Every structure is written in C-alpha cells, then in structure tokens.
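Data availability (excerpt). All sequences and predicted token strings are deposited with the supplementary files. A representative entry, Cysteine synthase, is shown inline so that the format can be inspected without opening the archive.
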Amino acid sequence: MGLKENNKDMKTRSIIDFVGNTPLVEAQHIFKKEGVTLLLKLEGNNPGGSVKDRAAYNMISQALKRKEIKKGDTLVEATSGNTGIALALMAKVLGVHMVLVMSENATIERVKTMRAYGAEVILTSKELGIQGARDHALALNRKKGYFILNQFDNPDNAKAHYKTTGPEIWRDTEGQVTHFIAAMGTTGTIMGVSSFLKEKNKDIQIIGAQPKDGAKIPGIRKWPQEYLPAIFNAAKVDQVIEVSEGEAKEMTQRLASEEGIFAGMSSGGSVLTAIKVAEKLERGVVVAIVCDRGDRYLSSTLFEKE
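Structure token line:
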C-alpha cells in the first residue's frame, strides 16, 4: 500500500508550495529601542535558501504559462549566485534545462549547489564581474537561441514580490509596518514590495541598501547607467543608504553570533541599513529582508574576524 493510499486524507504538497511565507522575527540583541520594533524576514527559509526562489519560480512559471517556453527548452541566465541556485532548483522542478553564467570568483558552494540541481555552469572572467556574465548570457541567447529570462529587465521578477513578499509583510505586521528595507541588486524585491505596500499605505517608507563606491558586497550593486535594471523605478524608493564592505561584514557576523541568524553579506547590509533608519525613529515598525543563508559563504572570509 502506497503513502497516498495509506493516508487518503493527507494533502501531498510539492517543494514549490513551500516557497514564501518565511518567518518574520524580532531582533532581540542587535537593536533595542522603546517604541521601535525591528523585524527581520528570514528568506533563507525558502527551499533554495534565498529570497530569489520567489522570482525564479515566477519568471519560469509565467514564461511557461505564456508559452514563451515549453518543457525541455534550454534557458540561460547571468547570476552572482542566489538567483542561479534558485533558477537551477526551479528549472529542475518545472522541467526545463538551465545554463547559468557567473563570475569565476563566486564561492565554490554556489557553483556546486547549482550543478547539484543539474544546471550547467559557465564561469566568466572575474575582472568583468556580473556585467561580463550578463554579456556572455546575451551572446548565448543570440548564438544558440537559449531563452534568456533576464532577471534585470523581467517584470515577473518584481511581480513575484508584489504577489507574495509584500502581502506577507502586511499580513504579519497586521498592517503596522512603517519602514521597509532591502538590499538593492536586481531591485526586484524592493520594486515589488514597494508597489504593494504603497498601495496599502502611501506613507510607508521604502529604503534601499547600496554599496559605497569601491565596496564589494555580494548581492548588492551600484549599477553603471548602461547596466541599470529596466525594472528599477527610482520613484518607488524613498531613500537609498550606502554601506561599506566592512560595515556589512561586521553586521553579518553579529547576526550570527548575537541573533542566531546565519546569513550572507547582503543581509548584513540590509540589516545595518534598517538599524540606521530605526535609530532615528521615535516610533515605528521596521522590516528588513535577510536575503539568504550563510552556509554558501563558508569558503570566503565573510565569517573570519579581522
């Protein structure tokens, strides 16, 4: 007798059913101020370990729904890491092939995870960074006809957060959220959440974390004008706060050692920005995105003390 026959009333769910509805937890140690609450949304709890699961699923599933692609087709995408892992997972679940292009200085954990899900991974010159990876992915699109999702310009990236992340934050704060903070990479998270929350309450402040000039923080970018994501709309962000590499690294370590939240450096940048905002408030409910899990950075120096 099979599992379903033995448990006729049990609802069987797929891994996709567990994307989203991530925990929203209150910071206990890194920030305390009467009248102000700092809440951290733990996106590492998604099946693929990051906030990018939401966008990856939405981009592939919507392309299938519109019949732009079909099962068995090959897709290509440039990534700095988390989106690639999410796409590798979702491609496998949804029945398409995934080719991922990323800079050769990506942590080995990321590369191995993508390959474990069955994706082909192409490494490009670290000197060219994510821009070089984007150019190579576009070349494969032209030369081999691979379908390119183009997370940087794809409206389904931001729509994933309009449909899920924003509503979850509104629901879990019972509509009390006053400030929302996210690291700005593709900008899909901040665009989608801003669109939803501003519809609920136009006074909610949307703040983006961006690296200072010269800072290298995986998952956060300050894009040159020619590479600025097409989905980005500056009018949807009330304030941008720049963080240094050292600040982001220190906060990432503090999240682990003081809050028990094991995350990557972009999360440190997001939370640090949220604390800078919260410290200036008399009252408020501040929500920050914790983008991913820290285990994919263990081969780097992220958790090494200076």
